[in-house]
Amino acid sequence: MKKRLIAFTTMAALTAFGVYAQDAEDPFADAVETRHGLMLQMASDLGTLGGMAKGEAAYDKTAATKAAANVAAIASVISMAQFPAGSENGKSADSYALADVWAKQDDFLAKVADLNNAAAAMQTAAATDADAIKASMAQLGGACSACHKAYRQPES
Ligand code: HEC
User: Fold this and answer.
1) How many domains does the chain have?
2) Is 16 left (phi over 0), alpha (psi -120 to 50) or beta?
3) How much distance in Å is there from the Cα of 128 to the middle of ligand 1?
4) Which atom of ligand 1 is nearest to the CA of 83?
């Protein structure tokens, strides 16, 4: 009984702050949150690989192959499904995706394909040694930054 009262009070407070209203007005909130989660996980895995490439961390085959497999799996998930039309920067809260994602969709998807290819190459490198990871880092990091340069509004 007490629990329910607390739940109700919390809900009333959230409603008062317009939390629910805001979500209802931004139909793209979930998609934006989903793509941010995918991107952040890739950044974390890239950090693991980068640490070994730079010699900051010892080469660990299990950790390296896991990180590379994660990036490959996430790359295979990225599609227009997380980028519904209308969810660009300025129109959807928290979105830094530029309108060109949709205006130049073929090129955007080609960059997704580049990411998949780079992630596949990194999987081979990750199973080899730190030098191979280092050599493969340019292609993978390059795939990230090529897309960001064209399609992501820099956070200022
Ligand atoms: C095909 C295009 C594309 C590729 C490839 C790509 N990204 Fe992104 N990334 C984006 C876009 C667009 C955004 C902005 C999304 C938004 O704010 O809605 C973004 C945002 C991010 C963010 C910010 C997330 C946040 O919470 O604001 C990080 C971190 C990130 N990407 C990491 C990576 C890493 C690491 C790679 C490579 C392993 C990568 N991205 C590859 C398009 C791409």
Assistant:
1) 1
2) alpha
3) 27
4) 18
Two structure tokens written together for 2: 């007490």
Q: Give the mutation target among 152, 155, 156 for probing the ligand 1 site: most ligand atoms within 8 A of CB.
A: 152
Rounded distance, CA 122 to CA 56, Å?
A: 18
Residue 122 and residue 133: Cα distance in Å, rounded? 7
Tokens (6 digits) for 59? 């080469």
Secondary element (H or E) of residue 84: none
- The CATH number of residue 36's host domain is 1.20.120.10
Residues of the domain holding 47: 2-151
Q: State pLDDT tens for residues 66-83.
A: 999 999 999 999 999 999
Asked if residue 97 is part of any domain, the answer here is yes
- The answer, as to whether pTM is greater than 0.85, is yes
> Ligand 1 mean position to 107 CA, how many Å?
15
Amino acid present at 37: G
Q: Say which DSSP state 82 is in.
A: G
Q: What residues are in contact with ligand 1 under a 6 Å CB criterion?
A: 32, 35-36, 39-40, 42-43, 46, 71, 95-97, 101, 108, 111-112, 115, 140, 143-144, 147-148, 151-152
Q: How confident is residue 25, by pLDDT bands cut at 50, 70 and 90?
A: confident
